[in-house]
Design goal:
One of its GO terms (biological process) is cytokinin biosynthetic process. It contains eight helices and seven strands; from the N terminus they run ααβαβαββαβαβαβα. It has 235 residues and is of the alpha/beta class. It has a single domain (12-228), classed as Rossmann fold (3-Layer(aba) Sandwich), CATH 3.40.50. Helix 1 packs antiparallel against helix 2 and helix 2 runs parallel beside helix 5.
């Protein structure tokens, strides 16, 4: 009987003690994912994560921008980390792979959309069951985020990074949003409503990210940051 079947059976029979034991043993599965991620990613070297929608078609301009971002980053010796799936993630891995750079995929087991793309290096594909562990890997081993148009998952990664940097929980690293048309409305709301109307953030928090329109400008922002600051672990 699988773990899921055991949990289902325990609920059906109201066996609360069995559920409690199952929860306790789950800690070891969580630990195993952390250990596997730390051991593999610590050996790869400086990387930049590329985020965006799994639904983006190859014909989209943002797909092409993500490919070019991967190429430009690996030209300068950075590896590329993505969520490992299709769409923008595939494009980022493709740019790195086709340029002979390091191409990393942090895949997540989902009932829809997510399957790992073919441009990830065979020894740099990690599979996760837990979103929160996967997010720790992005935060710990990325020297920068390039964020293209995406959905809820993309927003989740973006705002978690901004929050952790804003609160000093991790070292500051460059965050670039690509696509002024896509991100412009959100940025205006943050500035006009969150900052100026409600005073829920400080003005300097707007400097924690940059909005650009091209792969060249996105990559250049990363490079300029590390011309000024030394590469070091985020935490």
């Amino acid at each position: 009987m699988t773990s899921e079947e055991k949990i289902r059976s325990a609920f059906e029979n109201k066996n609360w003690q069995e559920i409690k034991v199952t929860d306790s043993w789950q800690i070891f599965k969580i630990m195993a994912e952390f250990v596997d991620g730390f051991e593999k990613l610590a050996k790869i070297g400086p990387c930049v994560s590329i985020f965006g929608s799994a639904r983006t078609a190859e014909t989209s301009k943002y797909y092409e921008i993500a490919v070019e971002c991967g190429r430009l980053l690996t030209d300068r010796g950075y590896g590329v980390i993505t969520g490992g799936g299709p769409g923008i993630m595939e494009a980022g891995n493709k740019g790195a792979h086709m340029n002979g750079g390091k191409s990393v995929g942090l895949n997540i087991d989902l009932p829809f959309e997510q399957f790992h793309n073919k441009y990830i290096d065979h020894n740099k594909l990690l599979e996760f069951d837990y979103f929160f562990i996967r997010k720790v890997m992005f935060m710990k081993y990325s020297q920068g985020f390039i964020v293209l148009p995406g959905g809820m998952g993309t927003m989740d990664e973006l705002f978690e990074a901004i929050t952790l940097i804003q609160t000093g929980k991790i070292a500051r690293f460059p965050i670039v949003l690509v696509g002024k048309d896509y991100w412009g409305g959100l940025v205006e709301w943050i500035k006009n409503t969150m900052l100026e109307k409600e005073h829920n953030i400080h003005a300097e928090d707007l400097n924690l990210f940059r909005v650009v329109d091209s792969a060249e400008d996105a990559a250049e922002h990363i490079f300029r940051f590390y011309d000024k600051y030394v590469l070091k672990p985020n935490f």
